[in-house]
Amino acid sequence: MAMVREVADERDALLAFLAEQRAALRRSVLNLTEQTATSRPLVSELTLAGLVKHVAGVERNWLDIVRGVHIGDRGPVHALGPGETVAQALAELAEVAARTEDQVRELDLDQPVDVGLQGHPLVAGKVRTVRWVLLHLITELARHAGHADLLRESLDGATAFQLVAAAGDPLIT
Predict the structure, then answer these.
(1) Protein fold of 10-167
(2) Given phi > 0 = left and psi -120 to 50 = alpha, else beta, which region is 83?
(3) How far apart are CA 116 and CA 52, in angstroms?
(4) Which of 39, 63, 169, 170 has the smallest number of CB atoms closer than 10 Å to its CB?
(5) What is the pLDDT of residues 61-79, one digit of tens each?
(6) What are the tens digits of pLDDT across the range 158-172?
(7) SS (H, E, C) 101-149
(8) Is the dihedral of CA 45, 142, 121, 105 positive or negative?
């Protein structure tokens, strides 16, 4: 079973799979209070709201790297800051998603990307492609969507399938 819409081509498939991972993160905070979405049900520092903020930051950073912007040490944070809300984190995720959609539709998937701009020792000096960056983002967001599934179920027992149904998202098989 897949929860990704039909796709027209490779670029559309990459964007569709990325969109589905974002949707999973959005569903993870569905119908939660601010207090619950920012609580830590496990020993980990992770919170659902923090994961939403984190994935928006990760995606923004990678798309800046694709544009050739050096991101320096602005690593994504895993928690909301003072005064930040879940609604703001969701709005940021939506803004980043729209920017990604616009940017990727205009790019050559084989365009080289100097991923060493990220400053991470594992990719320092490496050149990849836009395709590689998108696949990496899908992987990264999927990992965090899995974390969100565990956190949400720990908070109130809601499973990913229950959240899909509550959100009214169709399941495509």
Answers:
(1) Four Helix Bundle (Hemerythrin (Met), subunit A) (1.20.120)
(2) left
(3) 25
(4) 170
(5) 899 989 988 776 665 578 8
(6) 999 999 999 988 765
(7) HHHHHHCCCCCEEEHHHHCCCCCCCCEEEHHHHHHHHHHHHHHHHHHHH
(8) negative
Residue identified by tokens 């080289």 is 112
- Tokens linked to 138: 């899908």
76 secondary structure, DSSP code: P
SS3 30: coil
Predicted local distance difference test score (pLDDT) of residue 69: 84
Single-letter residue type at 125: G
Burial call 100-112: b when 16+ CB within 10 Å, e when fewer:
beeebeebeeeee
Per-residue model confidence as pLDDT tens digits over 114-155: 887 556 666 767 889 999 999 999 999 999 999 999 999 999
CA 37 to chain centre: 17
Instruction: Read off the tokens for 159.
Output: 């499973």
